[in-house]
Amino acid sequence: MILITGASGQIGIDLADALVDSLGPDQLLVTDLRMPEKLRPGRKYDVLDVTYMESVEKIIQAHNIHTIYHLAGILSATGERHPELAWNVNVNGVRNILEAAKRYKCRVFWPSSIAVFGPTTPKVNTPQETVTEPGTMYGATKVTGELLCKFHSNHHEIDIRSVRFPGIISYSAPPGGGTTDWAVDMFFQAVEHGSYTCFVTKETRLPMMYMPDAVKSMLDIMDADHKNITVRTSYNIAAFSFSAEELAAAIRKRIPTFTCTYAPDFRQAIADSWPESIDDSRARKDWDWTPEYDLDAMVDDMLLHVRKKLQK
Ligand code: AKB
After folding, report:
1. What distance in Å separates the CA atoms of residue 136 and residue 119, rounded to the nearest whole number?
2. What is the location of CATH 3.40.50.720 in the chain?
3. Which residues on adjacent β-strands are paired with residue 195?
4. Which of 84, 63, 62 is CA-nearest to residue 74?
5. pLDDT, tens digit only, all 312 positions of the chain
């Protein structure tokens, strides 16, 4: 059986749907700190706090888990406000999962982030192997996680695969506590209210990706031949980059009355420390990574689904 941790989060909901679609029902155990209000068919639910090793082991044993998508984690903005929580959940969580994967011979997917990069990293077309000196606690936990993945892959021969996600745009579940959340909020506010106050400046440009491509990246890397995986920290992956002003313009093309104002807060400094664009040639070469959505296709699809969701 496959285990997803943090399954009620932004990525977990869509990944679970994709796994149920491709594997059929009853292959999936979805877990989070609390049971969700709405249970979906085709999967089993349980409660799991990944910071407790005994709980992680119990779940893996009880459900005969062979593959783990370890998505439980604290994002960048929450991590800056609650650094100890971020360290506990992100570092102790991944440590427990990797330790359990070693004992029970599980394969693991773990998401890293562009947050491993920082002010001293080249900002444009950021290479796979480069300076990783993040200024945030979230970034520090992701660098540590990447090194733990590499250590366990090399020393214990666990099959761990990872990608460095950019900001992810989606409509199923809201992101929580990230610096790139403005790109999602802008769609919902544009459809609901026709206006949005953005918490980064209009010039802020970040790498982003539409959720179907994020899900595709996880399934593709997990399907790839073991011998082709040459990066055991985490792979750079990219789809497109845009500034807040460019996203607002793309939405305005479809909703001409939409207005966007800018009121940067503490998240601006985090955004300023991250790359503008990412070189993902290694992922393309090793496991044929290719995103399907460009900016226009993403905006069209997002507006369609957000309108449906908000009944507008
Ligand atoms: C965040 O903004 O914290 C995340 C990320 C880029 O890892 N979306």
Report:
1. 10
2. 2-168+209-236
3. 259
4. 84
5. 999 999 999 999 999 999 999 999 899 999 999 999 889 999 999 999 999 999 999 999 999 999 999 999 999 999 999 999 999 999 999 999 999 999 999 999 999 999 999 999 999 999 999 999 999 999 999 999 999 999 999 999 899 999 999 999 999 988 789 999 999 999 999 999 999 999 999 999 999 999 999 999 999 999 999 999 999 999 999 999 999 999 999 999 999 999 999 999 999 999 999 999 999 999 999 999 999 999 999 999 999 999 999 998
Separation of CA 241 and ligand 1 centre (Å): 14
DSSP 92: I
How close is the Cα of 275 to the center of ligand 1, in Å? 12
Domain 2-168+209-236 annotated CATH 1.20.272.10? no
- Enumerate the H helices of 157-265 as residue ranges: 182-193, 211-223, 244-254
- Provide the β-strand partners of residue 210: 169
Nearest CA to ligand 1 atom 4: 178
Q: How far apart are CA 159 and CA 156, in angstroms?
A: 9
Fold (topology level) of 169-207+240-276+292-310: UDP-galactose 4-epimerase; domain 1 (3.90.25)
Helices 211-223/10-23 angle, 10° precision = 60
With a Cβ cut-off of 6 Å, ligand 1 is lined by: 75-76, 113-115, 138, 165-167, 178-180
What Å distances lie between residue 63 and 18, 94, 189, 207, CA to CA? 20, 19, 41, 37
Distance 271 CA to ligand 1 centre (A): 9
User: Which residues, including other chains, have CB under 8 Å from residue 156's CB and lie 6 or more apart?
Assistant: 102
- In the chain, where does the domain assigned CATH 3.90.25 lie? 169-207+240-276+292-310
